[in-house]
Design goal:
By secondary structure, this protein is of the alpha+beta class. The protein is 39% helix and 24% strand. The protein has one domain: 3-Layer(aba) Sandwich (Aminopeptidase), CATH 3.40.630.30.
Length: 191
C-alpha cells in the first residue's frame, strides 16, 4: 500500500501513524455511540473501545487509514491481512460527518489496496452498517459460515459471535464456491 495515500476533491486518504492514535481512539468511541441501545446490553461498554484494546488491534496487524479534511481526521478504517483474506476492521466516521460518503471513499480505497478476498464483521443489529456494506457490493455469508469465519479470523468473545454477522466480497464467494467444489470432487473421487 502506498503510504502517501490518495487525494480526492474533498480530502486526503492517508495511512495513519503513531501520532494519530488518540484521534483514532476518539473517532472510534464517538461513532460507536450509535451501537448504544442497539447491540445487546451485555456487549456495550463505555468507552466502547479502550486505548489498550486499540493498541492490541494495531499490534495484531490492523493498519489504520484515515480520511482527512483541512488537516483533521474525520474517519478511519482498518485493514488486516490474515492468511488468505483481508479483513476490514473498525470502520468509523465522526458522527458530525456521517452521510457525506467518507466511509464509502475509505472502503473503496482499501479495496483497491489488496487482491485478497475481503471479509467484514459487524453487529447483526447494526442494520445501517449492514446496508452500507451491502451498498458497496458485500453480501452476508450464511449464519453457519459466519460463526466459523469469526472464530478463524477474529479474536472476539463467543457472545459477540452470537450477535454478529460477516459480509464478504465477490472474490470471497467465488473462491469459497471453488473451494467447496474441489472438496466435493475430492470426496467423490475417493469413493
Amino acid at each position: 500500500m502506498s503510504p502517501q495515500g490518495h487525494d480526492d476533491a474533498r480530502g486526503l486518504i492517508r495511512k495513519c501513524d503513531d501520532g494519530d492514535f488518540e484521534t483514532i481512539h476518539e473517532i472510534v468511541n464517538d461513532a460507536a455511540k450509535a451501537y448504544e441501545g442497539v447491540i445487546p446490553e451485555d456487549c456495550w461498554k463505555e468507552p466502547y473501545m479502550a486505548e489498550e484494546e486499540l493498541r492490541q488491534e494495531i499490534d495484531r496487524g490492523v493498519e489504520f487509514w484515515g480520511y482527512e479534511e483541512g488537516g483533521r481526521l474525520v474517519g478511519v478504517m482498518g485493514i488486516q491481512r490474515f492468511g488468505d483474506v483481508a479483513l476490514i476492521r473498525h470502520s468509523y466516521v465522526r458522527t458530525a460527518e456521517w452521510n457525506r460518503g467518507i466511509g464509502g471513499r475509505l472502503l473503496s480505497y482499501l479495496r483497491q489496496q489488496t487482491d485478497l478476498p475481503i471479509l467484514i464483521g459487524t453487529w447483526g443489529d447494526a442494520v445501517w452498517a449492514i446496508r452500507f456494506y451491502e451498498g458497496h457490493s458485500f453480501r452476508l455469508v450464511s449464519p453457519e459460515e459466519k460463526d466459523g469465519l469469526l472464530r478463524k479470523y477474529w479474536s472476539v468473545p463467543e457472545r459477540q459471535i452470537e450477535c454478529s454477522v460477516v459480509l464478504a466480497d465477490r472474490k470471497w464467494f467465488e473462491s469459497h464456491t471453488q473451494s467447496v467444489g474441489r472438496s466435493a470432487r475430492s470426496i467423490e473421487e475417493s469413493r
